[in-house]
Amino acid sequence: MRGFPTRAPAELEDRPRARRWMVEALWSEQGVGIVGGEPKCGKSFLALDLAVAVAAGVPCLRRFAADEPGPVLLFAAEDAGHIVRARLQGIASAAGARFETLDIAVIDVPALRLDHRADRQRLVETVERIRPRLVVLDPLVRLHGVDENTVADVAPILGFLRDIQRRFATAVVLVHHARKSGATRPGQALRGSSELHAWGDSNLYLRRRDNQIVMTVEHRAAPGLNDIEIELADDGEGPALRLRRTVPDQAPPQPQSAQQRIVQVLAKAAAPLLQSEIRKRAGARNATVTAALHELVREGRVERGSGGRYRFLGAGAHEAARATASPNL
Fold this sequence. Notes:
The model is unreliable at about 245-250 and about 315-329 (pLDDT under 50). By secondary structure, the chain is of the alpha/beta class. The strands form three sheets. The chain has a nine-stranded mixed sheet, sandwiched between helices. Strands 12-14-13 form a three-stranded antiparallel sheet. It is elongated, with a radius of gyration of 32 Å. The chain is about 35% helix and about 20% strand. The termini are far apart.
């Protein structure tokens, strides 16, 4: 056969929906992508939360299911071993997973360079030995010495990671920094070439909005999730991210009627008021005040005294007047 092999659409792999997610709604099965965000937004904590979820088969952020556990390969370029241990221990505790049996292999070298042929070969050999469901590399800036703004420099690194994904049927999470930007889409704020944004099958973006951390979820082949508020909390065993507990929204207060404002004005007044004074304090038109006062006097809630001054008789006056008028009730 000359040229490339081909298949009909019906001959392509049909993956059941249940197998399309490594972590439900957050990360696609065997997907590559970015966990990105501004500094100090919890990117590394989120990547480690994904790692614990996959390694132990527990929900990521205590909500997003990871039902098929498997090995995880992790390289944390910026953190010492004791820091990685403490973070994983805190996340495992929050997730209800046993820290001692976490199926996570931590690459124990001071540096790993994806632009060096020897390091790429060692990483391939490690992936071949571990056979992970997930590879986590944190952060990209410590994994190379190329110009991130140049497509010709970045593309070979991303192509190498895509090759690992395809060769070993694994997912790849790459932690990367974002600029503080007014970009419409969070992915457009990623530092460096736009190739990074385009590369991902699943991308998670963290940013600060006021004092809250907001996560946006983006997928190549599935609907994303927008503006999930998360927070870093400590249950005593170490810090871990979680979905932010928010107070249920309350119905907005209904605007007061003119009559309610007039009652409020009279109730607060130290002495009876003229109609002109009531109108000014209640912020109502004269005709409105006239009609409202007439009704309130009729109901027995307000009394018109000498000199045309009005005073509030109290809420109980209305009920007393009704009882007097209707003795059989």
